[in-house]
Amino acid sequence: WDEPIIFEQSRPGRRGVAVPAAGVPAVELPASVRRAEPPRLPEMSQLHVLRHYVRLSQENLGVDQAIAVGQGTCTMKYSPKVNDRFVNDPRIAELHPLQPEDTVQGVLEIYWRLERMLAEISGMHRVSLQPASGSAAIYANVAMIRAYHASRGEAEQRDQVITTMFSHPSNAACAKAAGYEVITLLPDENGYPDIEALRAAAGPRTAALLITNPEDTGIFNPRIEEFVRIVHEAGGLACYDQANANGLLGVTRAADAGFDLCHFNLHKTFSTPHACGGPAAGASCVSEALAPFLPSPTVEFDGEGYRLDDDRPLSVGKMRPFLGVTPNVVRAYAWIMALGADGLREVAETAVLNNNYLMRKVLDIPGAGAHWDRNRLEQVRYSWQGLFEETGVHSEEIGVRAADFGVHYWTSHHPFLVPEPFTLEPTESYSKEDLDEYATILAHVADEARRDPEFVKGAPYNQTIHKIDPASLDDPKQWSPTWRAYTRKHLT
Amino acid sequence: WDEPIIFEQSRPGRRGVAVPAAGVPAVELPASVRRAEPPRLPEMSQLHVLRHYVRLSQENLGVDQAIAVGQGTCTMKYSPKVNDRFVNDPRIAELHPLQPEDTVQGVLEIYWRLERMLAEISGMHRVSLQPASGSAAIYANVAMIRAYHASRGEAEQRDQVITTMFSHPSNAACAKAAGYEVITLLPDENGYPDIEALRAAAGPRTAALLITNPEDTGIFNPRIEEFVRIVHEAGGLACYDQANANGLLGVTRAADAGFDLCHFNLHKTFSTPHACGGPAAGASCVSEALAPFLPSPTVEFDGEGYRLDDDRPLSVGKMRPFLGVTPNVVRAYAWIMALGADGLREVAETAVLNNNYLMRKVLDIPGAGAHWDRNRLEQVRYSWQGLFEETGVHSEEIGVRAADFGVHYWTSHHPFLVPEPFTLEPTESYSKEDLDEYATILAHVADEARRDPEFVKGAPYNQTIHKIDPASLDDPKQWSPTWRAYTRKHLT
Amino acid sequence: MTHPYIPNAEPGVRAEMLAAVGAASVEDLYADIPEGLRLRRPLDLPAPLASEQELVAHMRALLARNVDTTQVLSFLGHGCYPHHVPAVCDEVNGRSEFLTAYAGEPYEDHGRFQAIFEYVSMMAELLEMDVVNVPTYDGHQAAGTAIRMAARYTGRSRALVSGAVSADRMSKLRDFLGHDIDLVVAPVGPDGEIGEVEIDETYAAIYLETPNVYGVVETRGRELADLAHAAGALLVVSADPISLGVLAPPASYGADIACGDIQSLGMHQNYGGGQAGYIATRDEERLVAEFPSRLFGIAPTTVPGEYGFGDVFYDRTSFALREEGKEWVGTAAALWGITAGVYLALMGPQGMREIGETILARTRYAMDRLAEAGATVPHSGSVHFREFTIEVPSCDALLAVLREHGILGGVRLDDRTLLVCVTELHSKDDIDRLAAAVREGLA
Amino acid sequence: MTHPYIPNAEPGVRAEMLAAVGAASVEDLYADIPEGLRLRRPLDLPAPLASEQELVAHMRALLARNVDTTQVLSFLGHGCYPHHVPAVCDEVNGRSEFLTAYAGEPYEDHGRFQAIFEYVSMMAELLEMDVVNVPTYDGHQAAGTAIRMAARYTGRSRALVSGAVSADRMSKLRDFLGHDIDLVVAPVGPDGEIGEVEIDETYAAIYLETPNVYGVVETRGRELADLAHAAGALLVVSADPISLGVLAPPASYGADIACGDIQSLGMHQNYGGGQAGYIATRDEERLVAEFPSRLFGIAPTTVPGEYGFGDVFYDRTSFALREEGKEWVGTAAALWGITAGVYLALMGPQGMREIGETILARTRYAMDRLAEAGATVPHSGSVHFREFTIEVPSCDALLAVLREHGILGGVRLDDRTLLVCVTELHSKDDIDRLAAAVREGLA
């Protein structure tokens, strides 16, 4: 489709939906609060609004369309359709969050039961499902860390948080946003976070270690228990970023390595859909010692019914409005119920096997590599450095060209400590045939890059649009973050 | 997508959905009824089945995707999304048709109210919503015609049905299937059905006239009342095919022209979706004299509640299982309720205006024509005869090439009395801008045909697949109406 | 207000378009309709609910007056069956590309052609037959057409019809066939199967159902096929495809035409709106020629290895030949065919076997429990699939007691005979609950 | 059984793949995890409901224990609002291309970029501001970030926060800002608006909400903007976009940053799961630099006239800079942004005006009726949008009476203060029904 911007399809007088008239006397607004000019929104009939968005949707690739193994760290797994049905039921969709508890026993039971299941999966004591995302869960964990130290009179003293370079950037960013100084450990020559650097950093100013494991490289840090111990000995807390727990379900648990806190992303490991970037949902899991600091309210069960507890004096308070991102809580609950303990274990094992299988295929492609010759769990951060040196084609360009074949990848987070990176995470959802196809496409594009680098650099050729000139996006004089800005800067 | 046949994606042992075990003792089947070999169905995981069909869906064009004015006679209008919500509600979707009447008062009320509304729209006395489609409604009408004559002892004598060449082929076919001899009137030199031929045909053997008006050409027969009178005088019944009533809502009614029966297609005029070719729904509307013959059961209202009446000795009986295609009955009801009398009239007027506007645009294209210089209502059967004579490009080829631009048409029904036909029916759903775009594409393709006929004949170029070689489809040795047949004939 | 469904009702654009066609008003465009036929008053219809919100409120109030089978425990079957509908079935048939498309060409609607081709192909595997039609309306229509096909094929006009079919289907067959085909009804044996029958060279077909209206699985298919064939007639068998993971497909015992309803394969009950019919034969030109329905076939394209699709033997149809075609063809139930394909692909051979086994076992379990509860269970020595009858002193009295327990106990076939339907959706607990209520109702 | 969600759990393929990677078992691949950390028992979880049918039955039983707002008459608001959700909104956000996609590039995910760009562009028109972010989590987060942006922009660490905000939002602001920004709470005047306030050069911002927690529309925005600007501070205004078809947008009276929640624009209540936050500013480089969120911009491609999209000023973000970025960015609520765009496109300027007028009128009508029914209605001289408080002898007692009438009467702010929410969904009859029940409850 060559679908215009929606404003270009407007014709005055048309409308997509009608609004009931008040049926009661109108209110005259004082001039100070009355809108002067009607907003310049598009005016379109209902079919035309629908058609526009349906066409745009067809210009997008989700898990249900493509082999989405290319968004490593994102755990792009199948989100069962049946779970959407529960969420769309009015008895979830049309519940108000402040209804009396006796009218929401079903949804409270789901919250409660999911909390208990995640507690078992993490080995932790209590879980909050309030955080709106993985990053929000990290922030909630940091807030609890601060509250914990404050309760011990050490809030001022403990002003540093330690993290690692291959931990998700939100660990550093959330700690900073919460006012902490951030110390980042680089990998040692083996690809593991540098334990000596940790020893040097840990001390009386240490509030916590925030660490992902396996890191975004897919490498599991076998000394993780020692990391925790070092931080504990310094009086800090250990907080485990389990956004990517997909290879570990039923295999190892945060609590078993001594962590005080961890978090999960329900939209990764527990299959709730990514929704173009949210709504997501996070789960903050804590040890008994940290439980008093959990966000409020918590869901409590007295053996007969479920109720909300808001009377929690040590709580960090509200992380977001109301109890949580309920649709995703419902989906995650249903997903775990469909799998059970054996199923979760099978998820983990298959995710790891799929990843190792794909790794074999990818590393067979000339020009592709992976730093550090280590085992990988559920994902691998690869590098096209070899190919780049040979052809001058960047990883990003390879990815764009791969999109011409209906698959894609993203180039992961800055900084590119791994040069020309790409991170693949096949999860348990894809078949061997999918992985073969994916690797075949990458091999094909790498071969193209070798034979005709300019061709690959000119991609895409088989997409809705052609190669974008990004220059204007960083130039304040030209950038146009809205059509309104574009019209002003470029069309008048 | 280059999506393989589903059997090619099978891998033994996989499955898309699990079935609960019996949980009670198994039954041993005698060999005479036990299946010997498992069926060779595909074996795929759930995501892969879903992905396959989602990709296929993206290779299809519905009203929600494209400007679907090219399926003339089909009334491809917008089917409001909100109406689907009602149908998907368990209180429709999970109703069993033989539930006690007191548990289905809501759905019976919908049937009753829709019947009353269609009676008003047609001017008829009673309406049956049982027929599964427009053709089934024609058949039901023919069955009632036979029962009517039988009740008067004239069943044997009246063994002929008269129809016209531009009435939908199902009129002729259903009458024939019901055992009637079919007499077909050709158009006169003005494009109207030949009234003299009717006079010649009508007589003691005439059971009924089955006639569409406006015919598939879009031309309204102004002598329709006289047609009815001639048939009535011969002792026959007059039955109006109102499959395409979209230009007539609130403008003129079947009863007002003296018809005894008529039918509507809920999936055309009343907006229920076409669903790739059904489920559809038909409505058979009859005068008071024909009402005793309606299919059973009927819905009756006693002022307090609704009940089903199956005790109707003159009824033609069952046309299909149960009461009707309920989802479409619900949608049609909601659609009329959203529009009301003024809205229906506006639908009709806009459909006619849209058609006349598009006609101007199309007839401006060199090589395009329309037989008979008459007013048109809601559709026009055009002809590319001029273009064909100039270029040798057939209408079908123009349509295929137009599909490369995201629109299409079909070449209408045999026989091609209008040479190189194409029939456009823009309905009320499309905007002026849509009609302009459609006409522009046709003009562009016609121009291509003039400049490079072979290029147009080679189309499509921008579709999932390329030009099909149809030779095998009519050859019993080669045809493969299933993968099983294909495998046997072509792969072994 | 410009109605959201009618973009060109906006007065400005309307005026522009009228000007373009050179009309002063839309009335001009209706000039051909004589004044005497014109309706010069507004239609007498309820006031419109123009805002979607009001429409939703209105419909919600109507729907609230229904009680559906997720709210009560229903054992109703008799032609419309409660089976689990996998969410993926709903997801696919709800995709607007399928829901709102119609009759495009094999290029821009390649997806529809492929999906339907795959549906017929999966049915073909289940049925062990090579030719399966694009769905017709329902099982009634499929049965009627199948018998008519046999009549055309043999050039005869008499058919033996099993007496173990529903009254509704018999009504449909009489209406659809009765005017030119002589229908002879076969007796029902004490075991619930078709009884002893004889035919001669005037018969076009024997028509059999299995499981039949009593849920009894017919065991003498081979014998009937031989009987039919000896007389130069065809055996037509109506079979529910959901049974064919465990039951022998009609072709395996010699049936010439198979037919039936596919509502069981992924369609909700829809108050009877989820029906669709299939017809299948072997790949014999003369038999294929008798299909009125469309048949989709696979065909090569100009690109080697690429598949396209098209109509097989189009010149049989009424689209091509009007009254000279076979019966008629038109919009029927394509989307349900696509859906049934999704269902079969999800289930696979294992799933079809398992669901068959589960239904067989639970049906038998229910028969045993209800017998224990005091009901008389006829034909209890026969194999039943999904349905069985019980005989009780008064159906009405029993059903009333069951209603008090939130149970819809079955379909009343006559004053004393109740037809009970058990599927994979009925757990052992559900059946035990029914049995307990029946015991109370018969006490 | 191979689980339907895990294709490669099938033993044959698993063995093949293990062979390909040269591992004897998956255990080999876990070699890096020390034995001490290994969980050598199965997780203690409920038995799985492996068949979809059993899962559906289980979930259906849980959902049956909820009573939703289509089943009762609810006047609950206080941050989550019942508005009509057009079916097209659900249709679009249910499309699996949007629902299951994530973070693809601007090519294969062109649709997502365009849809979100259009959302921010429509919000920009509504807000009369040129820069709007890709949605953040919710209105709480948006408010917190907006104040933090003002602090960074001004280099100051104190903010004046209206006292007329909800306790929950205040809790969030204290948690999110309290550790390094001094929050001074402004008094509430007798009219329910923000009271008299003063600030000095240490203040980064004045934070105002309109309509505020009491549903009162603040009328002194211009005055507060002048006050803020005179001190070199910014005015941050949280406004519900559904009010902006009739109410003046914050920018029009001088606000520097607008923020709020977009749940009203097409999201179901979702038990609080439908929230998403917006932040908007003028197009000033220094202000734009302070956004933590992603901003999507339009950009040319190699084909003249073709539009593409990309990230504006990406190097502000934590994706680019980790802790040196502005706060953090991550998965938030993009799909709700797309949905809000669909909503605004359906409504258009007329719809937004009409819905605003309807809500204003019905809110006032409800205030009048409840006053007549005997409730004390504070701030009754002020303009209210959608919410207002009533004062009664006992909220609990009144709510209990209303429950008996199938009414959820409002949110209890304290023992004697009830917050009542009225939207376009509440008909005159609904309001009259509430008034009658309140009269009874207060009698």
TrEMBL record, chains C, D:
Keywords: Oxidoreductase. PANTHER family: GLYCINE CLEAVAGE SYSTEM P-PROTEIN, GLYCINE DEHYDROGENASE (DECARBOXYLATING). GO terms for molecular function: glycine dehydrogenase (decarboxylating) activity. This is Aminomethyl-transferring glycine dehydrogenase subunit GcvPA. It is an enzyme of class 1 (oxidoreductase). Residues 5-435 form the Glycine cleavage system P-protein N-terminal domain. It comes from the Bacteria. The keyword Magnesium does not apply. It holds the Pfam family GDC-P. Its EC number is 1.4.4.2. The keyword Cell cycle does not apply.
